[in-house]
Every structure is written in structure tokens, then in C-alpha cells.
Amino acid sequence: MKVLIVGANGQIGKQLVKLIKEADKHTVRAMIRKEEQARQFEDMGVETSIASLEGTVEELAEAADGCDAIVFTAGSGGHTGYDKTLLIDLDGAVKTIEAAEKAGVDRFVMVSAIQANNRDKWSETIKPYYAAKHYADRVLENSSLNYTIVRPGGLTDEAGTGKITAAENLERGVIPREDVAKTLYAVLDKENTYKRAFDLISGDEDTETALNNL
């Protein structure tokens, strides 16, 4: 598969691009917002495409042209206001879903947030972020796309352990970004994750076993 990584310059996105490139099973295209972000990917021999999640569906479809899958790892980040949460985490995600359909890209992997599907479990401190994730996920589930929604717990910068817990309903927990990237890579062509959504935290099973047991 040729995989477009949306949010390739983010912490999870960068690790996923590297994983795909080094594994040499799929090919990868990094979607970035600025020309100056291209150099690091070009130095790795990775193709780039410049497009903004605040741009048009047509521009995003052009960025995805020729790809077989999209992984949406983008986020507005904790330093922005909830206006950007609305524009990136909700509308940007929905525009990417529409762009995938427009470009004929069938496979779509979404990075969401643990328990985003369950309003009773939303964190009070970042409730608008959870609302954005919730409705973006709903749009994806109601689309024509072959989706997988991965809902990680609290993200850390620790080294990955390769050990996770994955299930449709988990209590709160944390997980290194490296292990999220590994999970995203693993689900790309794992058929038992098609049309599925699940929570993800650190655990005791290796990635492959945990995903096979979903």
C-alpha cells in the first residue's frame, strides 16, 4: 500500500513515517503544512505533499492522490485554543475523510482518544477536544471508507515497550507515542481491525497478539 500520513510532522506521525520507510513493506507519503518541513523527510527518501487541514477538501484529495490508505495522526496540540481544536481535530479530520472518498482512497486509520465514544468518560478539563474526536469518529464510521479507529490513552514520550492492551472498552491509562505508532503500522492491513474501533494503553501483550485478540 501507499500510505499518506496526515500530521507527519507530529510526534506520532514522524515515528510512523520512519516505521513504514524502514519496514519496506508499504510506501509512504508525508503530508506537511510548510515547505520548510520537507527537508527532514526528503533526507529519509520519503515523498512529501504540502496541504493544510484548514484548506479545501480538493487540496487534501490532491495530496492523497495515488494513495491506498490514509493515517490521520494530526492534532491541534495542547498549546492552541479550542477554536483550533474545532478546525483541526474535527473539521480537518472530516475534510480528510471527504478527501479520501473523493480521491478513491479506501483504507482510513484514525487516531482518536481513549473513551471518545463514551460521553460519560470524557475528561472535564479537555471536554471540547473529546467532543471533536467523538464527532470526527462518528463521521468516519458513517462513511464509505474501510476504517480503523485507534483510541490511545494519555500519551508519553517514554521509549516504547512493544507491550499493549487493546480492547473496545478500557479504563484510563497511558501509552508511549512510539507504541501508538507501532500499533498504527500494525493495523494497516490487519483485516480483523477493519470497521473496528478500540481503546489502546500500555499492557502485557505484544502488539501483534493484542490486536489478534481484539
What share of the residues lie within helices?
25-40%
Largest sheet report = 9 strands, mixed
How large is the radius of gyration? Answer: 16 Å
Strand content: 15-25%
Total DSSP E strands: 11
Mean of all residue-level pLDDT scores = 96
Summarize the SSE layout with pairings.
Layout: E1 2-6, H1 11-23, E2 27-32, H2 38-43, E3 47-50, H3 57-64, E4 69-72, H4 82-103, E5 107-111, H5 127-141, E6 146-152, E7 154-156, E8 163-167, E9 174-176, H6 177-187, E10 196-202, E11 205-206, H7 207-212
Helix pairs in contact: 1-6, 3-4, 4-5
Describe the structure.
This protein is of the alpha/beta class and 214 residues long. The two termini are 23 Å apart. Helix 1 links the parallel strand 1 (2-6) and strand 2. It has a 9-stranded mixed beta sheet, with helices on both faces. Helix 3 crosses helix 4 and helix 4 (82-103) runs parallel beside helix 5. Helices cover 38% and strands 24% of the residues.
